[in-house]
Amino acid sequence: VEFGLKLRKVAKAERQKRTAEVMEALGIGKYGKRYPSQLSGGQQQRVALARMLAVNPSVLLLDEPLSNLDARLRLEMRAELKRIHTQFSTTIVFVTHDQWEAMTLADTIAVMNEGTLQQLGTPDDIYERPANRFVAEFVGSPPINILDFERKDELVQNVMRFLARRHPEISGIGSVGIRPEAISLVAGKDDLADSDFGAPARVAAILPTGGSWIIELETGNEVIFMNTHVAPGVREGDRMHFRVPARALNVFDAKGDRIRAADEVLAAAAA
């Protein structure tokens, strides 16, 4: 941990003081006399972070630093990095392929695809207003449902008629994305609000994940997924209607880019 400070020829007393403060902040002060082989993976990660933080860098670059840790250690280290960012006010550039690491840690996310920036924004922007289909499909678990207008199945026809009838001012639509969390079930068509998009569906499968449920819905030849944190109260084979508030529809053009004008129209319809 002192290594970087030694290279900078920091006085011994100041070096020891700074090292002790950083190690204590990271909860590894009591391991100071141990060799690397005597440390767990999470402790080794903390040592690496302490060595960098000791020199008080203005920018910290982390390239997939948690990829070799097990699930529990990754969770602990995410919380640790969040606390470090708050305590030390260090700018952290964090590279990861794990969408949840990006969503839980970042103030600002840059989504890249084949070296090209797709979107720059807050986690809420990235999730709720993806700039294009790549971003929409990359972020989210279960992944977003995409209704592609090139496919002329029953559900696509339903959403096309809904948008053409209610919002004819939206043009050039190539596909519509619906987050699983935006879907809910109602008994029938009469339970839909005027601004809701909905369609009849059959409950094909119920998948409990511990604290939440993923429900597979069949509607015509299309399969979509919804996600709920409330016990669904339905059984496989039940026939229901699903509903989606108009403001939760993500509308993309034929190239896959978000139609920004549609956001205002759909938000106004749901107001």
Give an account of the 3D structure.
It contains nine helices and twelve strands. The chain has 271 residues and is an alpha+beta fold. α2 packs across α3 and α3 runs parallel beside α4. The chain is elongated and about 75 Å long.
First-residue to last-residue Cα separation: 56 Å
Number of strands: 12
- Radius of gyration from the alpha-carbon trace, in angstroms: 24 Å
Strand composition percent: 25-35%
SSE succession: HHHEHEHEEHHEHEEEEEEEH
Query: Tell me about the biggest sheet?
Result: 5 strands, antiparallel
Provide the spatial order of strands within the biggest beta sheet: 7-11-8-9-10
Mean pLDDT: 91
Shape: elongated
Number of helices: 9
Classification by helices and strands: alpha+beta
Low-confidence stretches: none
Proportion in helices: 25-40%
Note the main attributes of this structure:
12 strands, 271 residues, 9 helices, 27% strand, alpha+beta, 35% helix
Short description:
This protein is α+β, with helices and mostly antiparallel strands.
